[in-house]
Design brief:
Length: 64
């Protein structure tokens, strides 16, 4: 997948989300995984406008 900027406020890319997911032993749910990615990357803690994009990226990565 092409790397692109998802969260402009915190400068988080698709690759950053993907790297954060490698810390997960298993995926319980998208919501729980989002919270874990958010802790690691600080994504969606600024304006929150990227929330849906982050959720989409997590879903894509989880289903690979």
């Amino acid at each position: 997948m092409e790397n692109y900027l998802i969260c402009k406020c915190k400068n988080v890319t698709y690759a950053d989300v993907e790297n954060a997911l490698h810390h997960e032993a298993h995926f319980e749910s998208v919501e729980k995984t989002f919270a874990d990615v958010q802790k690691i990357t600080q994504c969606s803690t600024g304006c929150g406008g990227c929330h849906a994009k982050i959720m989409d990226a997590i879903s894509q990565i989880m289903n690979q």
